[in-house]
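Hi, here's the filled form for the chain we discussed.

Project: internal
Contact: R.S.
Residues: 282
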Amino acid sequence: MEAISGAGGGTWHALQVRRAALRKSVRTLYIPSSSGITLYAQLSGLVELYGTRERPSQEEAFRLADDVYIIPPGPSRTLFVAAKGDVPATVASLTVPQETLHRFVDEEDLPSRLTQLRDMFPAVRFDPVLALTVRALVVASEAGADELYAQAATQFIAAHLLAAHTDGAVRSAGALSSLQLETVLSYMRENLGRPVSLDDLASLVSFSRFHFVRRFKAATGSTPYRYLTELRIDMSRKYLESGNDTITRIGQRCGFSGPEHFSRSFRRVMGCTPSQYRAMRT
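And the returned structure, exactly as it came back:
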């Protein structure tokens, strides 16, 4: 499969996103051995799954658009897949490192069930949330979203995958205190033009990444990534209204990893592109 770069042409450390184009003829899709969980979802078209080299299926296994193929930790294997009908299909994969799953289990004081992952998930599961998440990560990676985005997404996926197996044992979290929140927000404001990670923010208030995100959201109603993005957009608006820098330079000054990342983020928050906003304000 083709790797998709994130963070403005670099590689995300939190997870790796890949994609492959499929045609009507059956294709072998090699899946390397992994200690983490790999998710496959359809980006376009529809896909038929014919089983694995070890367990070939005699009948076609039809996958719906919101099905996700979940592969637990294990040795390498080969899938037999093909596009449904005459229209080519595209599939994407992402891998959640086992370290992230372990961290979630440890920080939530849950009994470790990572060794049982092979029995937890069927090969294919109808899961619109995961399917949408995989698709969103492909778009974000191509747009150059930064490492903070990938870390937050990986954390969400880990929680979602294990949520059905926690027996309600996940602890609820309160909000950050006023002092803790101001400490975090001050750091964000002082580092808008630099890369910021969840570890950076969580360490300021001595919480794990998982607990920090929940407490931050309880205090602000927003995730750290979204809040930081909106602060960066606010700063970029001032530059667009009063400065003569190019839009590319403004995006760099405000911490966006590339022009496309800046444009997509700005449009999502403001409803227009940076160039359109500048034209309306000047």
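Let me know if anything looks off before we file it.
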